Amino acid sequence: MNFSPSTIAALVIAASFAAGLNVYATVLTLGVLARLHWAVLPGGLEMLGDWWVIGASAALFAAEFIADKIPGLDLVWNALHTFVRIPIAALLAYGATTHLSPAMQLLAVAVGSGIALAAHGSKTAVRAAVTPSPEPVSNIALSTTEDVAAVGLSWLVTVHPWASASIALGAVVVAIFAVRWVVRAFRRMFGRSSDVQTIATQTKSA
Fold it and tell me: How many whole angstroms separate alpha carbon 13 and alpha carbon 167?
């Protein structure tokens, strides 16, 4: 990979979105690709190819693969990972830009964090809307799609950086609309619930 500023920007965008979906799958994919010499990472990310990083991320990916597909548990897991996915996405952005100026590094960290937040936020919001469903198929399908997307974006950015970044940017737009839709749906639901409770109270008073 040619590490020009534009290529690094594409890497930050795609890897940050992938990390927001599944940070362990992202780190594992990049690490394995680097270890097998199928991809070259920027100097600040070379440690991802170390065996201990690959082993730890593989174990955590296995744990997330299971936990993220169990209704209820997935909400707790995703809530806790607000404090994991976004900071690690920021670290990935920082590591990818070690050869750039401090100002550019700071910008990369801010952009990476924001993109990871959008991906993580939409994932958590959609999961909150789907989890109350009594069947587990929706959770499993969503989680599997997110896993595949994280691995796919992480691989694609090493061979077609801007194609991967374009997909990630498009997904960010979809993620923002998804969060807005979920928030509005919950507001309507709670609004109807409040109206029903008010009517019931008035009926009892009468």
Answer: 10
Single-letter amino acid code for the residue at 150: A
* CA distances from residue 70 to 57, 65, 155, 158 in whole angstroms, order as listed: 20, 10, 27, 32
Give the model's confidence band at 201: pLDDT under 50 very low, under 70 low, under 90 confident, else very high.
Answer: low
Tokens (6 digits) for 82: 């607000």
Contact criterion met (CB below 8 Å) for 74 and 59: no
Mean local confidence (pLDDT), 55-65 = 97
Q: Domain of 67? A: 5-205
**How many DSSP H helices and E strands does the chain contain?**
7, 0
Q: What is the pLDDT of residues 164-191, one digit of tens each?
A: 999 999 999 998 888 888 878 767 766 6
How many angstroms separate the CA atoms of 157 and 7, rounded?
A: 9
In terms of Cα–Cα distance, which of 119, 144, 130, 151 is closest to 66? Answer: 144
Domain count, the chain: 1
179 Cβ neighbours under 8 A, 6+ residues apart? 118, 121, 122, 125
For residue 128 the two structure tokens come to: 């909150």
Residue type, 64: E
